[in-house]
Amino acid sequence: xxxxxxxxxxxxxxxxxxxxxxxxxxxxxxxxxxxxxxxxxxxxxxxxxxxxxxxxxxxxxxxxxxxxxxxxxxxxxxxxxxxxxxxxxxxxxxxxxxxxxxxxxxxxxxxxxxxxxxxxxxxxxxxxxxxxxxxxxxxxxxxxxxxxxxxxxxxxxxxxxxxxxxxxxxxxxxxxxxxxxxxxxxxxxxxxxxxxxxxxxxxxxxxxxxxxxxxxxxxxxxxxxxxxxxxxxxxxxxxxxxxxxxxxxxxxxxxxxxxxxxxxxxxxxxxxxxxxxxxxxxxxxxxxxxxxxxxxxxxxxxxxxxxxxxxxxxxxxxxxxxxxxxxxxxxxxxxxxxxxxxxxxxxxxxxxxxxxxxxxxxxxxxxxxxxxxxxxxxxxxxxxxxxxxxxxxxxxxxx
Length: 399
Ligand SMILES: Nc1nc2c(ncn2[C@@H]2O[C@H](COP(=O)(O)OP(=O)(O)O)[C@@H](O)[C@H]2O)c(=O)[nH]1
Ligand SMILES: [Mg+2]
Prior knowledge:
Elements: E1 2-8, H1 11-22, E2 27-38, E3 43-54, H2 71-77, H3 88-97, H4 99-131, H5 137-148, H6 153-166, H7 169-172, H8 175-189, E4 205-210, H9 217-231, E5 236-241, H10 249-259, E6 263-266, H11 269-278, E7 284-289, H12 297-310, E8 314-320, H13 325-336, E9 342-346, H14 355-364, E10 367-372, E11 381-383, H15 386-395
Parallel strand pairs: 4-7, 4-8, 5-6, 5-7, 8-9, 9-10
Antiparallel strand pairs: 1-3, 2-3, 10-11
Helix pairs in contact: 3-4, 5-6, 6-8, 8-15, 9-10, 11-12, 13-14
The protein binds guanosine-5'-diphosphate and magnesium ion.
């Protein structure tokens, strides 16, 4: 069986692609509509995705209710000659004049629809089984939940295969046990770093936040600084690297004033070194980085020289969980070149696909430090906890 996925702006466009690439015999197995952010996450664009298959192994279905052709595709793309009611304009008068004929036609259509519905369900199940082989029926539902939360298919398969291998048959029948064990498997997959802690006795513990523009670095610095200072009673100094003079400083200055922390703005690696040295009486120094465009490699190179000069104790790559997995990965690749010790995910309150956090943490092999859950300073930040993330993935809900 050959499986392919097509994406387009509308269902009609996607169907045209299916027909032209796979021919009229292709069977639609699954459709979904999702939104992707474009232009640095400012615009949401709807994408229709169709998964279609060719050469389905029909021997799996013992008694096909219909001839082995492509009823779904043809029903959607080029309506077949169904009873009169499928072509209402042509036959409307006739139907209206004979209520019995009308009822019969509607009945016929209802039957046709329910046959199609059960075929689609059957095919979707087959498709899932082929993607997640050897999974008992009870676990398929959980596999689907992981996929819906955007956990990568290979990760979802691995998690459920582990689960199948660890559960006894009697446990498998107990939904509460299955969910608990599944959560444990997910938790094991997500490395977390714990909170920012100063271990040294002298000098500040220096933390830098890097990442694309608009992900929430400055807001997160303000949250971290406020919590360290106001809740934990630590002394905190703030530094912002702003070589572009884009006035991003005002935002942090406001927070620095409220918290009562010093803020230094630096324009060169030397100034940054001096600024850190000047804050030697602080227990923590948090470095914010302003930027114009995340794709500007020259600026990334510049950022690297700043980070090298600062010699921070930890560098957190800040990523927005509402951006597509593709964009997150390309940002991670670019900033990975600068230096990344931990990852921090923002805007979990706006994301329904928390699986992305798991995928990216696994892919980068970096531990999750914090997640942020809203715009409020200082409350909307939490230490990254594997169990919390696992439960969000399993519930399919946002925070
Ligand atoms: N919904 C939501 N918005 C956030 C969160 N963190 C930051 N923001 C918003 O994202 C926007 C950009 O934040 P900013 O800190 O300026 O991003 P920076 O360019 O990386 O410094 C602002 O409107 C913030 O209020 C979060 O956790 N959830
Ligand atoms: Mg900023």
